[in-house]
Amino acid sequence: MNKSFYHKRFRTIGVLTVIAVYFLILVGGIVRSTGSGMGCPDWPKCFGSWVPPTDISQLPDDYLEVYKQKRIEKNQKLAGYLDRLGFENLSASIFNHPSQFIETDFNVTKTWIEYVNRLVGVLIGILIFLTVVYAVPYLKSDKTVFFLALLSFIIVGIQGWLGSIVVSTNLLPVTVTIHMALALVLIALLEYALVRSQNFAFSGTISFSGRLQALLVIIAVVTFAQIILGTQVREEVDTIAYSMGGANRALWVDNLGLEFYIHRSVSIAILALNIFVVYQLYKLKNRNLSLMANSMLVILGLEIVFGVIMAYFAIPAFLQPLHLTLATLLFGLQFFMFIYYRFASREAALKAKVAVR
Length: 357
Fold this sequence. Notes:
about 0% strand
């Protein structure tokens, strides 16, 4: 097979898959902001069907109790597994969380929002499978690319299973956080496989700096942590909204705890750190890295603006998915910059090691 063909084919499917993952994150944010997470009370089907109902008349009169009982049985099995593995506290939290056994009345809009979310998840599963198939030729030239694609496929499977747990536990906070963390890991794996598979096109084009490489790692790690912290703040917002019956949005922020104030304050430090890294990147005079640096500043600026608006204007629902998606875009871009710089400066780094010896 022509090398340029399978390189281009893998690049195409890789880019499409990364775009699809980001689209799923956006759709998932819409699901959360509209309260549609329990639009389908079962998984993988929706109200027991592959195509969800469009009217409550299509459901039995006791549908709330039916699906509640199914969730209880599934959670009991999960709790049993967790107990045997030594996670007693996590097992107990499944049943101690205040909303665990509350069913949501059928709402056709919320049901179809959640259903679209699941369809996008299926699409990603197909794309990831094709990514693995198209990575097979790399078994001869670079096995790491293939195994990165395979690991991504496994993580998507775990995400699908975890999605069923998120539904059965009625959006238990810890499951939502793990779900988000794995999505970021998936993005990183796909990007690394993608850049590694194409590194022949730009390897050896940039001078190496150990300090800059470390800074690129730091900003990606800090952003990852900030997203996880933001996810926990969002879970707290959901709890407050639930306790207030979805009313009095202007009071939600006032009732948030320490995590919110840490999340807000850290954003200033993140901005300063990223500006410093951008300055270091500009000094390289590399067009691609400068373009990525500019994009990073734009995304970070919008992210902070959206965060300020959410904090001072009663958390507008339409901004919540945008805030989350921008944050994950920022992490993805930062990680992409790190691996791009690593491969582009690899020859210079090797020469520097030889000179030291």
